[in-house]
Write a structure and sequence with these properties.
This protein is an alpha/beta fold. The protein has a single domain, classed as P-loop containing nucleotide triphosphate hydrolases (Rossmann fold), CATH 3.40.50.300. The chain has seven helices and ten strands. The strands form two sheets. A six-stranded mixed β-sheet has the order 6-7-8-3-9-10, with helices on both faces. A four-stranded antiparallel β-sheet has the order 2-1-4-5, with helices on one face. Strand 4 and strand 5 form a beta hairpin. The chain is globular. The structure holds adenosine-5'-triphosphate. Adenosine-5'-triphosphate (ATP) binds next to strand 2 and helix 1. Adenosine-5'-triphosphate binds next to strand 2 and helix 1. Belongs to the ABC transporter superfamily. Lipoprotein translocase (TC 3.A.1.125) family.
Amino acid sequence: MNDSRNATGTGIVLQAEKLVKSYDEGNNELEVLSGVDLTVTQGDILAIIGTSGSGKSTLLNLLGGLDRATRGSVSIAGNALATMSDRDTGKLRNRYLGFVYQFHHLLPEFTALENVAMPLLIRGDSPASCQEKAAATLKKVGLEHRLKHKPSALSGGERQRVAIARALVTEPALVMADEPTGNLDERTAAHVQSLMLELNDTLGTAFMIVTHDREFASRCPQQYELHDGLLRRL
Ligand SMILES: Nc1ncnc2c1ncn2[C@@H]1O[C@H](COP(=O)(O)OP(=O)(O)OP(=O)(O)O)[C@@H](O)[C@H]1O
């Protein structure tokens, strides 16, 4: 596997070319993506907006290797997904990508620290190193005083910050976030949005953020709109 920093000598983390996705609907074929091109370079932060049903989640699933394209190509750190087994795609995903969703998906019976340590434990790191890295990452999202709290004892914004820490703990090149603040009140959403912009700035992690929030999108240096199956830079 290539390293993201010098995969192509250009710091390209993710590249999609002429991406098409159709769903088979019996007699009909629903073409959701009709030829999407996108390049994400190290440290980029980009927002993707689009009306409901325009294919934003479909696009993220393809780019993150969670689903396969009908045509076209996706490569992560210079590795083309099309010819890769599901197992190798999973390995690539774990190494280079982090994911944040609208709902935090934290495990309720585990503390914030244990939830954040989980991806490292699954990867086979030693328990001591997992704990240390998880604590350091929770500090980066301002939750060093909440390590032992379970999700039920955290506020909505805190839970989402734990989810962001969990996505960051493996030091991914790119975090893909699907409506990460869609479930938060306006004020809390604004805090979590600022946190992602800060983390991008301080850690150099690239962020791709699907959002309905046009104001948030306008705070991101790159903005794209998905419309009629195509992705257009705004
Ligand atoms: N597995 C599937 N099988 C058939 N059609 C699907 C499937 N997944 C999504 N679709 C359809 O593809 C279109 C795009 O869906 P998608 O979830 O990607 O949109 P979205 O832009 O993320 O929407 P929202 O903003 O409402 O979450 C929709 O018309 C949806 O019904």
